[in-house]
Amino acid sequence: xxxxxxxxxxxxxxxxxxxxxxxxxxxxxxxxxxxxxxxxxxxxxxxxxxxxxxxxxxxxxxxxxxxxxxxxxxxxxxxxxxxxxxxxxxxxxxxxxxxxxxxxxxxxxxxxxxxxxxxxxxxxxxxxxxxxxxxxxxxxxxxxxxxxxxxxxxxxxxxxxxxxxxxxxxx
Length: 171
What we know:
With 171 residues, the protein is mostly helical. The protein contains seven helices and no strands. The radius of gyration is 26 Å and the shape is elongated. The N and C termini lie far apart (113 Å).
């Protein structure tokens, strides 16, 4: 009788071990990769506006904007490590970005574009932190952020152009 118990115990342990290993192999095969590469980001189609020389001169002392552009540069290279457990730094950057706008650029159109950038940055951060996010969702979040930053640059250029045109004497 003891022999039967010992054999059945060995059989149960042996069966359980096989089942666990086969399940983990299935899980490994089904997990899609969510790693975003530079080539993935470069395939995103959007209109990218760059700052004019006059706009660059106005924002050269706006350090938070330059920090944001630096992070956008990393995102374009597929490096999303800034969003790994860095919620406090992101929040501080976005608050200071709005708080320290140069006076010549502080108007509602710029504030609206900054709010859109902030929203998209938080969205991308939450997508990055979620383990269930797919690569397509991450790329969608990256595209939304890149479009928001590009629109901010366009609006900065428009403000500079309007101010330049105000100084032209009217006939």
